[in-house]
Amino acid sequence: MSRQTPTRGDAGHASPLDAAWESIRAGLRRDCGARTFDGWLKPAELGAFDGESGELELILPSQFMADWVRSNFGDRLTLAWRTTLPLVRSVRLAAAPDGPRPAPLLILEQIPPAPAATPDPNRPNFDPRYRFESFVVGKANEVAATAARTLAGSDTVAFNPLFIHGGTGRGKTHLLHAIGQAFLDKRPSAKVVSMSAEKFMVEFIRALKENDTIGFKSRLRSADLLLIDDVQFIAGKDSTQEEFFHTMNEIITAGRRLVITSDRAPQDLDGIAPRILSRLSWGLVADINPAEYELRLNILEAKLAALPGVEMPRGVVEFLARRLTNSIRELEGALNRIAAYAMMTGRTIDVAFVEEVLANVLRANQRRITIDEIQKQVAEHYNIRKAEMTSARRAREVARPRQVAMYLSKQLTPKSLPDIGRRFGGRDHTTVIHAVKQIERLRAADSELDADIRLLTRQLEG
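-> structure tokens emitted (462 positions)
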């Protein structure tokens, strides 16, 4: 995707980027002091924003200033943007090609660089967005979320290790970061080690080469909480698995806590030693299933609340929840993309705009629900014969379910209005339009009908 300059809001109406930048600037001035802020950070201006990668460019007057700000405030700026406006995932500092050239050396003499904070070896670099407060719970992830909270917060737990498994993008890493942060919130002096299984393997091999296996073992086995992500990556790596098994045993035997994630259940992990699988099964195995419609809807609403200035009609949110079913990560990425495109183009977010922006994603997610399936499901729900969907009867107990089926056919299939009309006894497309508008109006006023349609939608998509 080509980079674009973010659209500014109209007079008196700041764009989400402008609003977030003002908030971040105020925080930086407060934290760094007026002199440092005015000399180095105040000149920074918003540059191009890439909606797909989430990279935002900040422009400074000179290369010297860009380099200095990158060295001293790069991580802080990235963290501030990701926390304030999550659709910004990285920050690139660049020099203005034709900008003024101040005398930065004079400023440098007046203002010493901000002292670099000494990293705490006991506190991994957890993503502040990934906390329990921002994890939306539903039937698909309720057991895993409850177990994670228990392990992180309770003084004693009845299970150890906790093994969380589920497909890509369902929230395993979110829970892992949430566990680590909640554990440290309650026990600030605790030692927490968090790494992927791949990093475990790389560091173990490096320790072997450098004859420092004792240091490697000591660092991991002394942890009060050890978090290992994507354990499937050590499949087939015999020496790594040997060390991993002994690390697990040491942690569990010492009464410390261990959390492991994987993309599949223990019994489905090919290439992992049976004794490791047996040890994993001693604890609690919690799966995260694909998110159901209601959970997807709740996640979208929670993410929208964290995107200031983004207005998305309820109908669009429901459309996204219905159509994007692969993973939560894809859902979040689609929402960020929509917000970024709307911000850059100044266009109103509606279903047509979403279909344009997410054309490829929607095609990949499309499950071919047929009008025949819809007619059968609706007829069964309202206890009428399926043949009534195409009959000429106009009695209310038949006409209303028929309108519901037409409405769902428009919402859940790519069929045109004339095509839908033909499948309902050769009716005209204007009849379908009337049915769709009628059901939309009634849904807003009739909670029972609204609940019926939600249930039918879940059943058809499920």
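The longest helix spans residues 63-84.
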